Amino acid sequence: MTAAADIGGARVALVTGGSRGIGAALCRRLAADGLTVHFIYREAETAAKQVVNDIDASGGSAYAHRADVASERDVQAVTDAVLAASGTIHVLVNNAGIVDDRLLMLTELARWERVLRVNLTGTFLMARAVLPTMLDQGWGRIINFSSNSARIPGAGQCAYAASKGGVEALTRVLAAELGHKGIRINTVAPGRVRTEMTGPVADKLGPDDGAGPRWGTPEDISGLVAFLVSDESDYIQGQTITADGGRLVMRPRGKSQS
Question: Does 63 participate in catalysis according to the annotation?
Fold first, then answer.
């Protein structure tokens, strides 16, 4: 186990996309585990305030920051604000992402570039901004977010799937560069998770009817992330860990096994 086990006081986490869905569950779980949580949101101010209020009411500590992870200036400003408020950053969770699905022939360059800039470049910018602090303290955890779509993409997911495949490759590169410095970098690849965004179309995409893997909940993912940011995950490095209820390996019931 690395030297971070001796760091005094609460560890500090920075979560992107923390106001809703999986991100909000991540913030609540990390705060419940005793971390001071800073999170980034872009538009959902009311939801962000609710997350802060929920964590404060439960005895935790949380701070919301409005920023765009695709903006180099915003990323540096948020990083500086977190360091000014809490003194350090032990954990970065790159959860923020956008979807803009359309067939490649119908995908405008600006839409393609926006998806890659948020999902992939945003992950790069956030990691680059926090690494000096993690290197100075000789310990850190970076958790990136991919998706099943990187391996089993649907039609119309050219930009989204490409961005998530890039995130997985970036994770492996960072692990190779930084593993000997006490920093662990891994990726979580969720399957179908029922959130505010996916709820209205969940049944159309495949209901929980027993014919296949169930839809996940944000808490299914937050528990995995909580483990990966802990000392107990010290031997896990550069991996993409799928949490999809078995969707990648299970056939729906009643389908031919031939």
Answer: no
DSSP bridge pairs for 12: 36
The partner residues of 92 in beta bridges, in order of sequence, read 14, 142
Provide the edge-to-edge strand list for the sheet that holds 36-41.
61-66, 36-41, 12-16, 91-94, 140-145, 183-190, 240-243
Tens digits of per-residue pLDDT, 27-49?
A: 999 999 999 999 999 999 999 99
- Look up the pTM and report it: 0.89
Architecture of domain 10-243: 3-Layer(aba) Sandwich (3.40)
Which amino acid would we find at residue 19? S
Instruction: State the catalytic residue, choosing from 41, 63, 160, 235.
Output: 160
CA dist., res. 30 & res. 37, Å (int):
7
123 CB burial (10 A radius; 0-12, 13-18, 19+): buried
Average per-residue pLDDT in the chain?
Answer: 89
